[in-house]
Amino acid sequence: MDPTTSRHQELIRQTALFALDYGVQHSSADAGSLGTRLFLISTQLEAANPDVLINSDMPELSGVITKLQSILQCTSYPTTKFQIDQVRYNLGVFLKSSDFKAEDEMQELLANCNTLLKGLRVYESAAHILANPPNSRTIEYPMHIKEKLLSGLRKQSLCASCPNDDGIQRSPRWHPIRLLLKQKPLGVDSQTVDFNVLVARTFQERWQDVGLSISLREKSVGFAGENQPRGSSSRRQESILGQGMFCRILSEDIFARVCFDFRNGYFLPLPNGQALEQRPCPGFGITLTTVLQKYTLQLKDKIQLAHMTAQAFWQFYDTELLYSKWNSDCILFIPEQHKGVRRVPNKPYISIQFEVSEECQDEYLSEYSLLHRYPRILAFAIMLIEIGLGRSLQLRRCNGLATQVNADFDVACQGLDELKKTPWENFGNKDVFIQAIVNCLASNNYRPVDITDGTIPRSEQDQCGRESLEISQRRGVFYDKVVWPLQWLAEVGFPGDQSASYLLENQGSPQLPRSLSTRQDHTEDIQLPSVQFHGGNCINTKLWLDDLKAINKAIYPRLQKLATDGKGVRVAILDTGYDPKAPLLAEKAASRCFKGWKDFVSGSDVPVDSFGHGTFMAPLLIQSASISEVHIARIAENTDNLQQSPSRVTQGIRWAALEQNADIISMSLGFPTSNNKAHEEISEAIEEVRKKRGRRIIFLASAGNSDVYSDETFPATHQSVISIRATDSLGTFMTTNPENTKESSVVFGAIGDDIPTSLRQFHPEASLPGSSAATAIAAGIAAMMLAYVLILPQMVKMEQGEGVLERLWTTEGMRKMFMKMSDDMGQRRRFLNPSRFFLDKPTPESRYFAIYDCL
Questions:
Q1: Is 375 part of a structural domain of the chain?
Q2: Within this chain, do residues 730 and 601 fall inside the same structural domain, yes or no?
Q3: What gap in Å lies between CA 255 and CA 694, rounded to an integer?
Q4: Is residue 456 in a domain?
Q5: Smaller CB count within 10 Å for the chain: N or C?
Q6: Phi and psi (nearest 5°) for 729?
Q7: DSSP 535
């Protein structure tokens, strides 16, 4: 503190003590109020950042000092006893005076003190802010509030009544839900907690603005006027009213906000609607990763976004919303429509999914040699750094958990160093933001209080590595060291201005379409035919194949440049053969795709198919991935013949993998799980070729149809095979699919219905909708993605990424890719949607990062 400020601080402090003493002796409320305010000002001056304070003009401080000097009749605090007594006397005269002028001067001085106190908050040093978190945390949700929110949404977002375009309700699913992360103030009389959510029938359709209220009192509240306990009849009525309520409100556009109260396990609708608070455009939303690529975050945007996400992360840290890491790919923004123009408000959402994720990573890691033991907090630190920099960090992908965590930590440290050097103009508290990130990266902040440096705790834990007491401790630390500093920045840096601003689009970025498109972006290098039909709620359900063709067409020229290097994508189909004279296969463009043939049934040297099933699968593959090289192994004459010849399937696997060097083996076939011989022989062949190929091969198989076998068929159940189920063109899973009996696994669906007539008309008896067709199309999608990764180095400069992308050539890697490019349809089911992937990732760079990230 400079000498002048130090003298002023001492004068204020001593005056505060005199005023407080006078107030006690004479029971003077005004004297007590003045003394309290002056003492707080003195404390704030002592805690202020001296460098910032010296270089700042503070008229509020000058005004208070001038007034005190006038009252005390001195310019600085005196040093002799006589002078001190004189100052005390002069203050007493002022405090004792009862005329109107003195009272006005007192009220003016108190007002000036209040203004000064508010202004001094800006000058607090980072060390003081971080060392003094508030005693009570702002609106901390009790656990019962979070449990009711998630349980209520789980029940009411489960849809079993919304029909599809053909009027038929197929398998149940959960409606898509987005939870706004911005925390609302407490509701009526501070007795309720309110949440903003968006609900839609499907991602392609409009979002409904929904308000949810939950009482802070643990016991459910009955209807007004009720004296008797709720009986079973009343509860049943509320249960019936609650179930399927989202289906009912989504049946038509009501142009109003729908509000619900939580009672007896359900969200029940309130009779009156409200004006809309959210006006989102239809569509999946824009990830933070895309926002960082296409938009410029102003300083206010950065601070508010960091605070909102950190506060929500802390609130829900002990719930299933944090079973997976929060990163820039899961924070979503929903464009809004204003007078024909789409804009993106700085309002972050999180998708609420009730399926068990395959990426349910432990909250705490006990492996040795780790630089950080809390992967979710580490991931959040990386996201804060990205927000601060205004761009994404490029994370490496490594083999081994410890190596991966340490690599992420290293990238975070490098990003933090860059952020420290990046200037934030006209903002003096950047150190507070930096320290919040440092507190995330300091793993020891979050260890249990009774754990020493040399001890790795291995406590009894529940699902996904959670131990309730330790988690409670970590939540508290996270608030004090991360949420509170960011909250202080948001409140002091932008006092009273908590409204959501609109993000500024970077110069040169593609303009957002003015229509109510279901997509937030248009691709720059690949134009999909379906885009023009996606206005409003009108969707042409037959354009999926045209989209795949458009992607293939964009890939083909660049892939041709690699042909001389022997690079390409090879797909083997194990089926009933194929008829080269079939109209769609006889065309020149299709016929040149066939590169290999082997008949394990009759030994024919020329392609043959007496049943038609394989002839139906081949054009599905070629139409989905015309850039692929196709190899056909005839392993059965027909479906009945297949069941007696698992050995031919094993021969086909070895031929395709070891002789034809296929990248993908597609098997639109299945054996009942009771066929032990098929299970043993085919499993042996799969493991053999995986070992010989260094796991660099991808297997897909149809899950089967329940009208044939009630259970999922083999080899789809093999751990090294991706099981495929059938959907329609909107992603609705067909009722003929077998049930998913694995509690923790996610299943994939591809289009097996809505097949264009041109592909079905030549073998109608073998061209039935189902998982066989879906498997061929999924194989085509997989081949298309492999081809796209092959050409990525021509479009994106890669320093270390190509080795990571090689993992896509494994079943495990392709399964992760399918997770990335699929829509959540509820009940642990995901619909392969390459159109959305290429639309949502509008540039080669964004697709590269998405693929790199998932691998």
A1: yes
A2: yes
A3: 57
A4: no
A5: N
A6: -70, -10
A7: B
**314 falls within a domain:** yes
- Per-residue pLDDT tens digits for 513-558: 322 233 333 334 676 665 433 323 333 445 778 888 889 998 888 8
Question: 501 and 578 share a domain?
Answer: no
Shared domain check, 768 and 619: yes
Q: How many CB atoms lie within 10 A of CB 545?
A: 22
| 446-471 confidence digits (pLDDT tens) | 987 655 444 444 443 444 444 556 88
Q: Of the residues 215, 626, 772, 835, which is catalytic? A: 772
Round to whole Å and give the CA distance between 576 and 579: 10
Residue 500 phi, psi (nearest 5) = -80, 125
Q: Based on the residue annotation, tell me whether 8 is a catalytic residue of this protein.
A: no
Please tell me whether residues 584 and 725 are part of one structural domain.
yes
CATH code, 587: 3.40.50.200
| Segments in 625-675 forming alpha helices (H) | 639-642, 646-654
Segments forming the whole domain that contains residue 64: 3-124
Q: Which residue has the higher pLDDT, 243 or 727?
A: 727
Q: Is 575 marked active-site? A: yes
Residues 565-582: pLDDT tens digits?
Answer: 556 799 999 999 999 998
Residue 635 shares a structural domain with residue 739: yes
Alpha-carbon gap, residue 473 to 554, rounded angstroms: 53
Task: Give tens-digit pLDDT for 389-448.
Answer: 999 998 876 656 788 889 999 999 999 999 999 988 777 788 899 999 999 999 999 987
- Tell me the average pLDDT of the chain: 81
The helix or strand, by DSSP H or E, that contains position 847, with its residue range, turns out to be: helix 844-854
Same domain, 616 and 753: yes
Q: Per-residue pLDDT for 265 more than 90?
A: no
Give pLDDT, residue 3. 79
At which residue do the structure tokens 């296969």 appear? Answer: 585
- Give the domain-ending residue among 767, 786, 805: 786
**Is 9 inside a domain boundary?**
yes
Cβ(584)–Cβ(743) under 8 Å? Answer: no
Strands 349-351 and 331-333: antiparallel
DSSP string, 462-491: BGGGB-HHHHHHHHHHHIIIIIHHHHHHHH
Which domain-ending residue is among 124, 159, 182? 124
Q: What is the mean pLDDT of residues 105-113?
A: 89
Tell whether 585 and 495 lie within a shared domain: no
Strand order across the 722-727 sheet:
594-599, 629-634, 570-575, 664-667, 698-702, 722-727, 747-751, 829-832, 822-824
* Single-letter code of the amino acid located at 26: H
User: Residues 763-797: pLDDT tens digits?
Assistant: 666 667 899 999 999 999 999 999 999 988 888 76
Q: Does residue 707 carry a catalytic annotation?
A: no
Residue 372, CA atoms < 13 Å, CB-side half-sphere:
25
Indicate the number of domains in the chain. Answer: 3
pTM: 0.56
Q: Say what the pLDDT of residue 240 is.
A: 47
Q: Which is the catalytic residue, given 613, 631, 679, 763?
A: 613
**CA nearest 376: which of 476, 478, 293, 480?**
478
Residues 307 and 399 in one domain: yes
Catalytic residue among 408, 547, 575, 609: 575
